Amino acid sequence: MKKKVNFMCTAFRDGFQSVYGARVFTKDFMPAVAAAKEAGINHFEAGGGARFQSLYFYTNEDAFAMMDEFRRVAGDDADLQTLSRGVNVVGLDSQPRDVIDLHAKLFKKHGISTIRNFDALNDVNNLIDSGKSIVDAGLRHEVVVTMMSLPPNTEGAHDPDFYEATLKQIMDAGIEFQSVCFKDASGTSTPAYVYETIKRARKLLGKDMNLVFHTHDTAGVSIQQYVSAIEAGANQVDLSMSPVSGGTCQPDIITMWHALRHTDYDLGIDIKKIREAEAVFRDCMKDYIIPPEAMTVSPEIPFSPLPGGALTANTQMLRDNNMMDKFPAIVEAMAETVAKGGFGTSVTPVSQFYFQQAFNNVMFGPWKKIAEGYGKMVLGYFGKTPVEPDAEVVKICAEQMKMEPTTKKVVDINDADPKKGVKVAKEMLEKEGLPLTDENIFIAASCKEKGILYLTGKAQVNGIYKVDREEEAAKKKGEYTVTVNGKAYGVKLTKNSAMVNGNEYPLNVAFGIDENAIETTKDTAGSAPVASDASAAASHEAVSVYAPMPGLILRLDVKEGQQVKKNQVLLIMEAMKMENEIYAPCDGVVTKIAVSQGQQMQSDDELLVIS
């Protein structure tokens, strides 16, 4: 008789995060949840991780309403699981105990039955309070040891000895749990290390404990990892469904079913029904654009362990800001940020910190601008890193951030922080006249200004990459409406001609600008407008402040008519999940504010004017 291998379907959380940067509308995928349920799947990842903040940041939806709908569709008997980042719960920043406790209570209230709870640094202190809140709320607690592989010729943690020691620390800390997961978000752990780690874990935990292995296919070894884990004693793996399987995602259910054929193991599925469910899912997602890097198995990932779940979240942000050309250089630079950052596992939020610092190193020069999250991590404000960070980098972070290194417990630091907690969240809501519900309090605490934008109705749908069917049809026909200097023209393009307002003209398109060819048209085309004397004079009396990079206007700190001093903070722009302060270039009076909170800007857009 074959031994059944259990699995959780991650398509509707990790799959969305890995492929679409977590930006998917609830109504679009619920029919696929129903189809998966009909196919016999009863264990789903239904939220948490990036699928909490992303609903408020991008789809302009309520994550609690999404979880309620998931429970309704999946049914009362389904095991619905979410992902929590230890003391960070479902955000990039860490939280005090009252917010950690509220997280567990609210997720229980909104239909969740299991929470997978991890710490990217494998600092067990960060799992104690979060784990207690999960258990006290009546939820099933799946505690996690996070894994990755270090680049060749690099040493420091991330071997079976380290993972075994971490598991022993969890057990010695008295943390109550009902399941243990070994989570490799980058998919880089070698199958040999996976086998040895799971083998030791099974020996420590006994034969009855639910033991899970989780990975991504980004580095191309996921199936071998899973088979190694199963043979070593794991009784559950995480699997996804097409079109969000393979590449940056988990392996597909069908792929794993095939890998286990003619072995002693079986997933216990009706493969015909699974294929039918995947067909429904593909139809649901047909309008969503899949970034090419999301489906790519990259041989470079072991050298710069960018996790599947965060890879497209970052590339989508680069696309939002027209900076995708920087991606290869950022990935290359990430290896150094990992090596000098103390070898925290490349999983959110630490993977974001690595990427943000690599982004800054590319954009501003190596270590010239420290990303807040990265700086706090190496200084100890997110917990103890597996190995000591680079001493010179620690010094740079301390100097730039004006913070001293710490060894205090993260929750103790946060409990004493006057800018964090339920009380602060309530004050944010009261300032805007918003109801003080538990849900609103948690949204404000975990999403801050962007959560308030959502709750006040100022947020907008943004960053959703879907096929525009009307645009595609127009392109196929070659038909466009082109407006030049305020006048509209109906243009139909063919291979050798352009029909403009019903008149046909010969057409030839060449790459680049041929200065010799266009020389004869310059006189009739007109020249660039010249500023009038009045506007030229005004330019000497007023200074425009422009966006230094694409980003979202997160907060305005000045008003029109306000006197400002040189180097005073004018506003905060968010780019790549980092807050960037925009300073006054001179003394003067703010005579014009050209932006509003929540507005997306491009590089060199005018922000305000100082006279």
UniProtKB/TrEMBL annotation:
Cited InterPro entries: Aldolase_TIM, Biotin_BS, Biotin_lipoyl, Carboxylase_cons_dom, PCB-like, PYR_CT, Single_hybrid_motif
Positions of the Pyruvate carboxyltransferase domain: 5-275
Gene Ontology molecular function: any one: pyruvate carboxylase activity
GO biological process: gluconeogenesis
CDD domains the record matches: biotinyl_domain, DRE_TIM_PC_TC_5S
Recorded GO CC terms: cytoplasm
Stretches assigned to the Lipoyl-binding domain: 542-611
Family annotation (PROSITE patterns): BIOTIN, BIOTINYL_LIPOYL, PYR_CT
Keywords annotated in UniProt: Biotin
Protein's recorded name: Biotin/lipoyl-binding protein
Organism (species): Sphaerochaeta halotolerans
